Amino acid sequence: LLGQILDHWFESEPLKATLATDAVIGAMASPHTPGSGYVLLHHVMGELEGQRGAWGYVAGGMGALSQAIAHAATARGAHIFAEKAVCHVLLGRDGRAQGVALQDGTEVRSKLVLSNASPQITFLELVPQEQLPKDFVQRIQQVDTRSPVTKINVAVDRLPSFLAAPNARDGQPLPHHQCSIHLNCEGTHLLHQAFTEATHGHPSSRPMIELCIPSALDPGLAPQGCHVVSLFTQYTPSILAGGQSWDEQARNAYADTVFDCIEDYAPGFKASVIGRDILTPPDLERIFGLPGGNIFHGGMSLDQLYFARPAPSYSGYQSPIPGLYLCGSGAHPGGGVMGAAGRNAAQVAIKDFRHL
């Protein structure tokens, strides 16, 4: 239990609650849920520029990271087909993966296929079910993909000024503007309360909010004087109580709740908003292919990690289809911007490739 770990090490309730957010990020879980302590560990493992557990912004926005990977690949002879949806994996008579078919009918032949899509899309949509063991298919279907996350991207015409640390007269970013700002985190009981509401199908009335202002460090992201604010919020259920869907009214009602909360900490925030983009769990699934809107391609609970990710006996990146590998967040060790699953899968694929 995360609560027990934090109680052991810390006394300050706001500090405990702020740290607790990293234990429930992307998880339909509360700080009191067994196993939540691992998710905190997952978020502080690794290092950045020699600092253990550190995080950083990507200059130019997160898309710049994808571009850097793409440039590294093309420099070594890779061909990248953007905006080309894969229809299915091509299989030979021997059942081996032989490439992929695109939705426009193009066939791309290869000796190996690595899928960065979720296990659900890879095995339930891109591969003929009769080619897979029944127990494997059942396991993939049963993966817990519930997600509490609604992401809101905001454009503002001035820097938020917080009551706890008002802006300087020149309006320039202060150190706290360059960090992750956690709101509604005065106590872990607030996180548990927000979680409980979502389990009953109701968006949290006082959501957990992680607020980042990447333009405070990377001015090129917004016009001079303006900023982009990234809001990572939870808890919002995929399906609302009574089976209601996330229509425009429900989306805006929740976003208004989030903005009202921010307004309490930073008066004038709502008046500074130029535009907002609201992405609920169904939106995240539809736009990015995240099952259930889950940013990790499946819950990071102890029963879905290590040797059980994505399924028992298939944690080594190979799949029941010879030549087809899983290299995304649904593979070991899970989600997060760290590249471990991709690197590990590549090592296995290279080793196998030498024997073809």
Automatic annotation (TrEMBL):
Family: Belongs to the carotenoid/retinoid oxidoreductase family.
Protein name: PYRD2 protein
Organism: Menura novaehollandiae (superb lyrebird)
